[in-house]
Amino acid sequence: MNKLEDKKIMRLSEAGLLGTALIWGFAFVIVKNSVDSVPPVYMLAFRFTIAALGLMIIFARRLKNISRRDLRCGAFLGIFLFLSYFFQTVGIQYTTAGKNAFLTTVYVVIVPFLHWLINRKKPDKYCVCAAFLAVVGIGLLSLNGDLSMNVGDVLTLICGLGYALHMIFIDRYARTQDPVLLTVVQIAVAALLSWLLAPAMDGGFPMGALAPDMITGMLYLGLGSTMLAFLLQNVCQKYTNPSTTSLLLSMESVFGALFSILFLGEWMSGRMVVGCVLIFIAITMAETKFDFIKKRGKEYGRSENAA
Fold first, then answer.
1. Measured between alpha carbons, how far is 231 from 241 in angstroms, rounded to an integer?
2. Can you give the pTM of this predicted structure?
3. What is the 3-state secondary structure (H, E, C) of the chain?
């Protein structure tokens, strides 16, 4: 494979990751529009079940090679996945879809510090600065006039922490296990946990979920936002570097905020916009360390010397 083909595959992979972020961003609107008819835990049960069945059909032959370690590691990941989605879906009932989308992406900044705590890998100065910017941005975005946060904001931040832990253990397990099998098992476990908890949290089966528009929404969340998005992420990450991957996936928050304005009529104050911008800058700093600015500076210096 020549360099031109490598570059083409890399560009297609980056487009795929951006597509993943787009799918996830629009999911915030679907969830916000559905929570009145479909309680949050039942919503998770539907989306994870649809995704798990779809994956099992697609990878039926591959499942024959599943090992006990695949099941054990996948189940562990499934617990983190369920908890993260649980706090996110419950949290969106008490906050706006735009804020829910942005606060969820705080996981990108949290990950380096959890690596330090769990894997003894100290974060660099860029991560420290990014964390500070993120805290300021979160404050501007979420704090009310009395300097308090509502319960939806807090639940969404817990969700971000869960996603961070989920990513750290995916990185650990995917080195020795089949990532596709891990994906199937963790989504199936998340579906099982959702069905077990749904009656206790949300009561009886929601008949509103059988409405045509709700069925369409659940199919989008299951087949699009869960099954397709996870497959896109797993395949495309093979051909891009981690910094580019995280940056492109963090666009989920931008798409979520934009879609919430376009389709839900949500409004963001100037202060909230500044908070969103700071969080996005923090995400960019933590993952890219502004390497593209350094490279441009070096190229400019070389051109000046040549002149």
1. 17
2. 0.77
3. CCHHHHHHHHHHHHHHHHHHHHHHHHHHHHHHHHCCCCCHHHHHHHHHHHHHHHHHHHCCCHHHHCCHHHHHHHHHHHHHHHHHHHHHHHHCCCCCHHHHHHHHCCHHHHHHHHHHHHHCCCCCHHHHHHHHHHHHHHHHHHCCCCCCCCHHHHHHHHHHHHHHHHHHHHHHHCCCCCHHHHHHHHHHHHHHHHHHHHHHHHCCCCHHHHCHHHHHHHHHHHHHHHHHHHHHHHHHHHHCCHHHHHHHHCHHHHHHHHHHHHHHCCCCCHHHHHHHHHHHHHHHHHHHCCHHHHHHHHHHHHHHHHC
Q: How far apart are CA 58 and CA 230, in angstroms?
A: 13
**Contact criterion met (CB below 8 Å) for 142 and 99:** yes
Q: Residue 180 corresponds to which tokens in the numbers above?
A: 């596709």
Encode pLDDT of 33-45 as tens digits: 787 788 889 989 9
Torsion angle defined by CA atoms of residues 298, 300, 301 and 305, in that order, rounded to the nearest 10 degrees: 140
280, 274 contact by CB (below 8 A): no
pLDDT (tens digit, 9 = 90+) per residue, 273-307? 888 888 888 877 876 776 655 555 555 555 555 55
